[in-house]
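Below is a filled-in request sheet from our internal design queue. Each sheet records the structural input a requester submitted and the sequence that came back. We keep these sheets so that new team members can see what a complete request looks like end to end.

REQUESTER: design group, bay 2
PRIORITY: normal
MODE: inverse folding
CHAIN LENGTH: 336
BACKBONE (tokenized):
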């Protein structure tokens, strides 16, 4: 009697085992994360690697055939929007411009990209190696009133900063710029992007744009298509123009003698929007040309090297002779 009982027990255990196995398989297909909470996440950078120096602009390409996909990236707490890119002889996909801020920490950081469709989504992870740029150090001696602000002017400067921050939060969700970028003035570069300025022995904020020396009244052209978001007359930058090119990309033109556009105007690459001057805290005529890309302060001349060559205006790189001109002082307050 013992042998039949054992056979019956083994039979019951086998049916029980089969039931448990089937149950586990079904639950795994529905609740894979809950059943395996200790499963490691996919490694960062699994989808590729990019590299660039502080102040540069990287072109990130993502292969995706869906026309209506929503593609966006995240890099060092900055959102990187992507736009549809179709090129002859190449697979369709999306492109994003990643600006490396001039003070981003050197090292490897993750660019996380999410692609969302109607019925599914996927996640990509890229490593971005940020290399340290060797920025110059400038020692400048200026009149005290060109550097230090009294209480009244300090309040004015802070109000102007708030005005700019508010205006730059209204960037267009559409890509307004096209292909090649235009150098706004043909002249001598009198400032160095990212240079650390020590004024009257005190270190100030690094220079966040390029200065181009040219005679007063020289035409200033907008670097690409966009909409004039803000025109100002500020204590440091003088008469200035902020142009929204869409997708978090802005260009700025400071120390103008004349502004030829108004808020809300649509402008096209190469259009004259102002004249070179020395307004604000400047010691001579020149243009301060700045660029912000999704919050990152990048070298505006990096735009001229972007690989977009689809019949847009050719880039002007000829440097006309220009007299020695003064420096800009629009960003001399030190960070608090």
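RETURNED SEQUENCE:
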């Amino acid at each position: 009697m013992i042998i039949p009982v054992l056979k019956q027990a083994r039979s019951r255990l086998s049916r029980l085992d089969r039931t448990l196995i089937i149950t586990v398989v079904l639950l795994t297909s529905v609740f894979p994360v809950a059943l395996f909470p200790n499963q490691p996440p996919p490694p960062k950078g699994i989808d590729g690697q990019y590299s660039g120096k502080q102040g540069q602009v990287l072109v990130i390409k993502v292969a995706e055939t869906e026309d209506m996909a929503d593609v966006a990236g995240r890099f060092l707490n900055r959102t990187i929007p992507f736009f549809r890119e179709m090129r002859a002889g190449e697979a369709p996909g999306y492109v994003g411009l990643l600006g490396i801020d001039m003070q981003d920490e050197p090292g490897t950081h993750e660019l996380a990209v999410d692609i969302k469709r109607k019925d599914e989504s996927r996640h990509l992870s890229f490593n971005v190696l940020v290399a340290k740029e060797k920025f110059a150090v400038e020692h400048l001696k200026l009149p005290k009133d060109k550097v230090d602000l009294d209480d009244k002017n300090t309040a004015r400067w802070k109000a102007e900063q708030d005005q700019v921050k508010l205006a730059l939060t209204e960037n267009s969700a559409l890509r307004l710029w096209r292909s090649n970028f235009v150098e706004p003035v043909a002249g001598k570069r009198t400032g160095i992007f990212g240079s650390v300025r020590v004024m009257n022995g005190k270190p100030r904020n690094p220079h966040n744009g390029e200065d181009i020396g040219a005679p007063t009244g020289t035409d200033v052209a907008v670097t690409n298509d966009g909409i004039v978001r803000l025109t100002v007359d500020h204590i440091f930058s003088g008469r200035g123009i902020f142009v929204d090119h869409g997708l978090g990309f802005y260009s700025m033109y400071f120390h103008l003698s004349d502004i030829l556009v108004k808020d809300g105007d649509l402008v096209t690459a190469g259009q004259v929007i102002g004249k070179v001057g020395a307004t604000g805290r400047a010691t001579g005529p020149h243009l301060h040309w700045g660029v912000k890309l999704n919050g990152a302060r990048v070298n505006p001349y990096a735009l001229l090297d972007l690989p977009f060559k689809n019949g847009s205006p050719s880039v002007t790189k000829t440097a006309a002779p220009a007299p020695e001109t003064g420096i800009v002082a629009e960003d001399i307050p030190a960070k608090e």
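SHEET NOTES:
- Residues 2-30 form the longest helix (29 residues).
- The longest strand covers residues 121-131.
FILED BY: M.R.
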